[in-house]
Amino acid sequence: MTYMITHAFLQSYWWLIISLLAGLLVFLMFVQGGQSFIFSLPRNDMQRKMMVNALGRKWEFTFTTLVTFGGAFFASFPLFYATSFGGAYWVWMAILFSFIIQAVAYEYRSKPSNVYGTSLFDTFLFINGSVGPFLIGVAVATFFTGSDFTLDLFCRVTWGSGWHGLEALVNPVNLLLGFAVLFLVRVLGLMYLSNTIDDAEMAVSIRKTLARNAVPFLIFFLAFVAVILTGKGFMSSPAGEVTMVKYHYLHNLVTNPLTLIFFTGGVVLVLVSLWLALFKNSDKAIWYAGFGTVPVVMALFFMAGYGDTAFYPSTADLQSSLTLENSSSSLFTLRTMMYVSFIIPFVVAYIWYAWRSINRKRINSEEMNGDDHMY
Amino acid sequence: MIENFDLSLVNWSRAQFALTAMYHWLFVPLTLGLSFILAFMETIYVRTGDEIWKRITKFWMTLFGINFAIGVATGIILEFEFGTNWSNYSWFVGDIFGAPLAIEGILAFFLESTFIAVMFFGWNKVSKKFHLASTWLVAIGANLSALWILIANAWMENPVGMAFNPDTARNEMNSFREVVFNPVAIDKFTHTVTSGFVLASVFVVGISAWFLIRRREQMLAIKSILIAGIFGLVSSLLVAFTGDTSARTLAKVQPVKFAAMEALYEGRTDAGLTVIGALDDSGERIGEKKVHDVRLKIEIPKLLSIMTTGKGSGYVPGIKDLVNGNPERGILSVQEMMNRGTYARQVLTDYKMAKELGDTESMTSLAAMFEDPDFVDNYFRYFGYSYFEHPWQVIPSVPVTFYSFRIMVGLGFFFILLFALALWFYRRQSLERNRWFLWLALLSIPLAYLASELGWVVTEMGRQPWIIQNLMPVNVAVSNISTGAVQTTFWLFAVLFTALLIAEVSIMVRQIKTGPKQKEE
């Protein structure tokens, strides 16, 4: 068995794990999406309290997935970690800041003597909910559009732009994915709230708001997909030479059956979820959307990393671009980490069990007036 | 580029990491220890069915939640700062260092974050036993998380289980077992985690003492003192024991740090351990570093020799021996290490140039050197020394290390006494009558935080200038970004952390003053 586990196999395996974590992260950002409505959706304090408590019981999953995503990237593709984090400094710092303020906001917002008042902590939740997903979308878009860096002989990064990552915000293609992710997580957030909160008035508001967010999501997402599939992609030859090739990502999509199935299947599930939520008043749409979001994100990552592709391309020097081959950890480390990754299904199982235990009963105003731990 | 590093960038990057780490460590030890105290209390509740224990558990759980959130917030920054501020480090050793961080996420963070939701919100939703299991899993998850990050941290101080790959110009793991069972990691984990237990116990005893001073919630306070007193006494004895084993390991793997902790400049046999002392500038210099005399010294004869070598006549090298070399004791001078390291770095540069030029013959012969044990053991192991200009640059700040160590150890012994007294007065049912003790316990809370922070000061300041012992100095590890960018984020973090700390303390004080809810449902 061991002889089959080549370095190339493990690089692909770990890209699969990274893709899975990215997919789960985007799905779990329904928490952020829900937070972005903190000032607009609730009609009164009780509705806001129900909304915050519904989201607050899940915020740690998203946070933990983000941390694990970072850790897994560090362990499996350390050159990406060094290059992107050390170069695109301001983008990552902005993402970090948006998550730091989230962590405390839930716990402190309604506590007496919180010094700054509930509204500031609610503003923190709004900032995290809006800025976090948008910037993560922009950062991921650079996997397709490239970044301005060079690497020297010893793999030390020099970033070309003094804006250290913020220059990605002036690339319209990056913005398309940024907004697509933002509106997607807003849609997911609304679906989650619909599933979790037992309040007729809120259910009506949620449905109306959902329609207004689903349309821009579809427009931004389809525009981004159209641009990358019809544009040039960063192809890496077997010798490691990187060139720009027209329709490269389209080629990756249609020639890899897994990518094609994940992408089309995922898109169909997301569309079904929208149909269920908007036209069937279903509160189960979140599950269809979730099971659709994860494979679509994974398919985007497959397009960026598999099929002789540079997943973190350099626009300053194509040959500095990062591929799965030149940026990964050693065979030994990837193999060791593979064994560790076998525990992931067990982790998913206990998360699922604990989630079901807590969400067995929907949140209502009666529970909010109780004496349990509240946000 | 690297050779002409910007010292201010290095210092600001260090300051930012230190700021984040020190804020983070204000919250983590309480989480580590209080999670177990909660588990003990809830176990008693489930076993006895006595509602008072549920009430006690929920009170401390509220304080746990307030503290936990801000610990999480500061923790995520540390992980990402390895990439944003120390990108050269991230590549040079990411193959080894990244693995524990990823494992921490998969094995520990999910455990902790999943069951903390059940712990807080599941009282009326899941069975008593499931809830209790969740509380225990939170405690185990939090401490497992500490295990993996401390394995990573220990590896920086004693890099083992790896080999250098000239092709990728980085170190690569070749033994996961050696990384995990690194002796420094074992000592560090046991010492750090038990010190967290001590801090949490002091916290619980101190707050409980306040209730007794105010003659409120006596039952809650006395029962809490019993649990925290036992846990604290056992933990503080373990801290002393693990501190001793840590020092023994340290003397072998980081002898300069060890000598700095003792302000020992001249190596000697029959070396005594300085219990108390004051440093004074002797007027002598090693390069640009001051040499200090230890005044007002109270010393335990031979103890330092016994601690490091196992016998009273054992030789303990001083800073001068370690910098200038001591051929009689087989200690190389730093200058010699610098020469050997420079040679190793030149071999690597030649290899990379040969690869660039496609000179396969040179590549083959140079690559073979990195597999030659003589080159690896006698030259490459000093790779990091090639970045120094002067031998004295390997000396850390002796006063900071010396004083921090003594205050930490002194407070450690004080806490043993504190817990012993708490249990003594509990047994004699005289806690409320000994108000001086109650005040002492309350005022000890900040001392526990001080001792805990100073432990990290000794560890991290004492190992300067290394980010990875002998392989990479901090100035080489830093990201190639502007000093202004790091200064900006430093101040942003400083303001944000301080603002959040103010809110945390304010909420915590208010919750304590409010006390537990009067009646449990």
Descriptive account of the structure:
The complex is a heterodimer of chains A (375) and B (521). Helix content of chain A is 69%, strand content 6%. In chain A, strands 1-2 form a two-stranded antiparallel ribbon. The model of chain A has no long low-confidence stretch (mean pLDDT 94). Chain A contains 16 helices and 6 strands. Chain A has helices spanning 7-28, 30-35, 45-56, 59-76, 78-87, 89-108, 118-145, 172-196, 200-230, 248-255, 257-279, 285-305, 324-327, 331-341, 344-359, 365-368; strands at residues 149-151, 157-159, 232-236, 242-246, 310-312, 322-323. In chain A, 58% of the residues are buried. In chain A, α1 (7-28) runs antiparallel to α4, α10 packs across α11 and α10 packs across α12 (285-305). Chain A has 375 residues and is mainly alpha-helical. Chain A has one domain. Chain B is mostly helical and 521 residues long. Chain B is globular. In chain B, β3 (273-286) and β4 form a beta hairpin. Chain B has helices at 7-48, 51-84, 87-121, 128-157, 176-180, 183-213, 218-253, 255-262, 303-309, 319-324, 334-357, 360-369, 373-378, 398-427, 435-462, 474-477, 483-514; strands at 162-165, 170-173, 273-286, 289-300, 466-468, 472-473. In chain B, strands 1-2 form a two-stranded antiparallel ribbon. A two-stranded antiparallel ribbon of chain B has the order 3-4. Chain B has a two-stranded antiparallel sheet with strand order 5-6. In chain B, α1 packs antiparallel against α2, α1 runs antiparallel to α4 (128-157) and α3 (87-121) packs antiparallel against α4. The longest helix of chain B is centred in the N-terminal third of the chain and has 42 residues, at 7-48. Among the domains of chain B are: 1-157 and 484-507, no CATH class; 262-319, no CATH class; 334-392. Classes of the chains: A mainly alpha (375), B mainly alpha (521). At the A-B interface, α4, α5, α6, β2 and α14 of A face α2, α3, β2, α11 and α17 of B.
